[in-house]
């Protein structure tokens, strides 16, 4: 009888020695109500935040810090009925999430954003109808109200609004440095945009508005300010033109004649993705100045899954699929694509850190 072994694998690419496991200190958070906890996030400075159920269908946000211990956030007249949610905690301990806002003339609660800091306590943005809420690790809260107001907040600057003219926001992304990117709409056209404190609002790749969801997109925004997405061809033969826009506004385009899915940014504009067509998937790496490289070693492979992660040194990790056999691969520009034999029936690459350690899983007969 065959048995399957399923395991997580952690290994260094360069064959480095495995270091001893570090010692950990475990702090158990007290739960005063003895009920479920949800939406937990934590930061680099050790702040933990989430929501706990005070009584059935009555949730309250909490914060735990190494110095202050557990604090329940006083939401005042807002209450915390139904639920609350913590999106994330910034590196210096700012907490952002949403709370329900009760109105006498509505039978349900409307969620509104909140931020909390150890210095200033709880701040609730009780304006109604925020459609998009985004919070960066640097502590910038970005909110879209009524689709056509882009409101930003930081602890140092307070609340201010980005002038969008007559445009509405269709999509919004934010990197950890507080740079925004997305799609603006004003029929009969859309525009892609990038906003930063240094350069303000910049639009690019204006294109005809399409109600059937064809058009253009911002799919990824890197930490060093590159954006990537596609412009769809609305006339046969259909296909996507991919682009990578540099922080200085230079746009680099490429086309593979298929639909394009983007995965992850490395550095200096390198991005991984899949070009999808009727014959399967064609994984690729694209970087300005180097062009596009398809990650495929030949006809013996039925298909090849794309790079699932890429680190700051632009080392890509992913999975090759050959019939029912899957193997982890890495790709570097100087070395090309290399399979990593792990001796199992199948192995899958997952994540890679900047030191070259890969975590994935493998299974097979033993």
Structural class computed from helices and strand pairing: mainly beta
What is the strand content? Answer: over 45%
Using only C-alpha atoms, the radius of gyration works out to: 24 Å
Number of strands: 31
Quaternary structure of the protein:
single chain
Major sheet characteristics: 4 strands, antiparallel
Q: Return the average pLDDT rounded to an integer.
A: 79
Q: How helical, in percent, are the residues?
A: under 10%
Number of helices: 0
Assign an overall shape. Answer: globular
Widest sheet: strand ordering:
2-3-4-5
Low-pLDDT residue intervals, each spanning 5 or more residues: 1-7, 209-213
**CA-to-CA gap between the ends?**
10 Å
Structure description:
It is globular and about 60 Å long. The protein has strands at 4-12, 37-42, 48-55, 58-65, 69-72, 85-89, 95-102, 109-117, 121-124, 130-135, 141-145, 149-154, 158-162, 168-174, 180-186, 189-196, 200-208, 220-221, 227-232, 240-245, 251-255, 259-265, 271-277, 280-287, 291-294, 303-310, 316-322, 325-332, 336-340, 346-352, 357-365. The strands form eight sheets. It has a four-stranded antiparallel β-sheet, with no helix packed on it. A four-stranded antiparallel β-sheet has the order 6-7-8-9, with no helix packed on it. It has 366 residues and is mostly beta strands.
């Amino acid at each position: 009888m065959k048995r399957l072994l399923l395991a997580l694998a952690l290994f260094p690419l360069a064959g480095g020695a495995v270091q001893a496991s570090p010692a950990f200190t475990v702090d158990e958070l007290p739960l005063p109500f003895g009920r479920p906890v949800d939406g937990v996030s934590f930061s680099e400075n050790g702040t933990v935040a989430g929501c706990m159920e005070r009584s059935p269908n009555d949730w309250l946000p909490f914060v735990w810090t190494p110095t202050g211990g557990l604090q329940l956030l006083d939401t005042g007249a807002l209450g915390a009925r139904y639920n609350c949610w913590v999106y994330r905690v910034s590196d210096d301990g700012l907490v952002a999430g949403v709370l329900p806002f009760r109105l006498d003339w509505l039978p349900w609660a409307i969620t509104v954003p909140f931020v909390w800091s150890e210095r200033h306590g709880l701040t609730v943005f009780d304006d109604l109808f925020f459609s998009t809420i985004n919070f960066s690790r640097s502590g910038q809260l970005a909110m879209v109200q009524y689709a056509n107001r882009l409101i930003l907040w930081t602890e140092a600057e307070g609340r201010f609004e980005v002038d969008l003219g007559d445009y509405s926001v269709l999509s919004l992304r934010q990197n950890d440095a507080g740079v925004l990117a997305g799609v603006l709409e004003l029929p009969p056209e859309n525009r892609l945009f990038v906003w930063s404190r240094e350069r303000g609002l910049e639009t690019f790749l204006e294109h005809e508005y399409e109600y059937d969801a064809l058009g253009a997109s911002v799919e990824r925004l890197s930490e060093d300010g590159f954006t990537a997405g596609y412009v769809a061809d609305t006339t046969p033969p259909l296909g996507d033109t991919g682009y990578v826009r540099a922080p200085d506004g230079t746009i680099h385009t490429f086309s593979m004649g298929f639909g394009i899915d983007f995965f992850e940014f490395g550095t200096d504009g390198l991005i991984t993705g899949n070009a999808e067509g009727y014959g399967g998937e064609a994984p690729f790496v694209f970087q300005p100045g180097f062009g596009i490289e398809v990650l495929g070693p030949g006809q013996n492979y039925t298909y090849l899954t794309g790079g699932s992660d890429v680190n700051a040194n632009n080392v890509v990790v992913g999975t090759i699929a050959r019939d029912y056999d899957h193997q982890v691969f890495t790709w570097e520009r100087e070395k090309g694509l290399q399979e990593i034999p792990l001796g199992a029936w199948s192995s899958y690459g997952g994540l890679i850190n900047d030191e070259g350690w890969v975590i994935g899983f493998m299974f097979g007969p033993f």
